[in-house]
Each structure stands twice: as structure tokens, then as C-alpha cells.
Design brief:
Elements lengths: L5 H11 L6 H10 L13 H15 L5 E4 L5 E4 L10 H16 L8 H10 L1 H4 L4 E5 L18 E5 L6
């Protein structure tokens, strides 16, 4: 009786899918369908073992049943189903992922203050060789009121002209 391997898991998962998958996606789907229980492994990161075996299989075995599709991240697909792939399949998948990430990523303006502070202090084209210091202003605590929306800035920058003296 043959031992069920990581490559067998990848083959079973890729038989049922219509698009190329990363090794992490292959592992996740295999885990959800119960294929991962068939593998005898004691490693803490079996998805990395799957990825390593897929990369080596594609690189070293000319008769491999897998192909690499795209780059960064590399996706895998079955060589026997290669004709099913459209030329722009990977581009379409990457665009979908970018759109999903853009929708799921939300920043609060104040989360970007450390980045702005670093830029202002270190970028010599911006600060013209001066050490510009910044301070975040918590305008929610201010008691001033007025019609001008810029009455309470979120961040201020200044430099001390001690070097100029």
C-alpha cells in the first residue's frame, strides 16, 4: 500500500479546482476537505513542507504532473489541465486579490503619523537638511470652536534654528 503524500494531497485538491492555487491555498482546501488527515507528518508547518515538495517536484522532475503558473506568489496547477487556463488567468486572479486587500485594509489617519514623522525627519529633500520634529495633536480634547476646519491640526512640525545661530 502506497503512503499518502503531500503531492497526493495537492493532486486531489487541484483536480477539483478551476484556477491555479498557491501552496498555502492548496493546504487550506486540503485541510477543509479532510485530506490532510491522511498524511503522516509531525511537522509544525506542514503547508511549508507541501510548498517545498511542490517546488522541487516542478523544478527537478520533467514528468511532473504539476506546473508553476505566475510569480509572486507562485501558483500551481495540474499539467494535464493546462489547456483549461486562459492566458490572462493569473492577471485576473492577482487583480481580484489586490481589490480584496484594498477593500479589507482600512487605516485610521492617526495610524499613519509615525510614518509621516519618520519621513519628515529623515528625508533631506523635504526638510532641506534641518531636523524637523513633529507632534501629534489630539484635537478631540480641544475646547476651542470655530468655523474653520483647520483650527485643530492633527500633526504639527517644527524645527529649532539652533544650528543657524
Amino acid at each position: 500500500m502506497a503512503v499518502y503524500s503531500f503531492l497526493d494531497l495537492a493532486q486531489e485538491v487541484l483536480k477539483e479546482t478551476t484556477k491555479p492555487l498557491t501552496y498555502q491555498e492548496i493546504w487550506q482546501i486540503g485541510k477543509e476537505k479532510g485530506f490532510s488527515g491522511k498524511i503522516r507528518t509531525s511537522g509544525k508547518t506542514p503547508w511549508n513542507s507541501l510548498g517545498a515538495q511542490l517546488y522541487v517536484e516542478v523544478r527537478d522532475n520533467d514528468k511532473s504532473s504539476f506546473i508553476k503558473v505566475g510569480r509572486r506568489p507562485t501558483r500551481f496547477f495540474l499539467k494535464g489541465r493546462e489547456r483549461e487556463l486562459l492566458p490572462d488567468t493569473v492577471i485576473t486572479i492577482e487583480k481580484e486579490e489586490i481589490c480584496q486587500k484594498a477593500k479589507s485594509t482600512t487605516y485610521h489617519e492617526r495610524d499613519l503619523h509615525p510614518l509621516l514623522t519618520y519621513f519628515v525627519y529623515t528625508n533631506s529633500l523635504f526638510n532641506r537638511g534641518r531636523s524637523i520634529f513633529t507632534k501629534t495633536i489630539f484635537h478631540e480634547k480641544s475646547l476651542r470652536s470655530g468655523c474653520n476646519e483647520w483650527i485643530h491640526p492633527d500633526i504639527v512640525g517644527f524645527y529649532l534654528p539652533l544650528d543657524d545661530w
